[in-house]
What does this fold into?
Amino acid sequence: MIILQEMLVSLDTFEAFVQHLENAEKIFEYIAGAIAEKSSNPYSSKISQCISGELYIYLKQHDLGHLTGEAGGYQVGDGRYAPDVAFISYEKQAELVKEGYNLHPPDLAVEVVSSDSSLENKLLTVKLSDYLAVGTLVWIVRPDDKYVEVHRAGKPAEIKVEGDTLSGDNVLPGFTLAVKDIFR
It folds into this structure.
């Protein structure tokens, strides 16, 4: 993740910035007043697609809502976030927006850590706090260490390693994913 300016900016400034023509193909987040360009790498992208594929198969059988990738941003409190994979129920938002950021936070946000930089970890801590404040279930995937942190509002974090299984909790009832399958 790259912070694009030294000064903090208003949400209006951020929204105008992302509308500039030269930014059309880029993904930006507004984190604690800072504009951050979302970055990735092929391995992190593969991990995101693996999780997204498993969720897609589940949602074909259980039509509960929308599945989005990193280009499907969300309003989370005052932040504007682009989780690598996200789910939002039809109950919360019947239709996705076609421009800008979805009006409601996701029910599940998956953040795949693409670098272990201190800046990325600081920004991720802010995002995690904001997600939990609105009740989002969060999976933070750490590819280099091959584990997943599971965060739920009001509960201690859980670490899931290769012998463990992720569940969809009450967000995606009956959904399971073996952690080892994420890191194949």
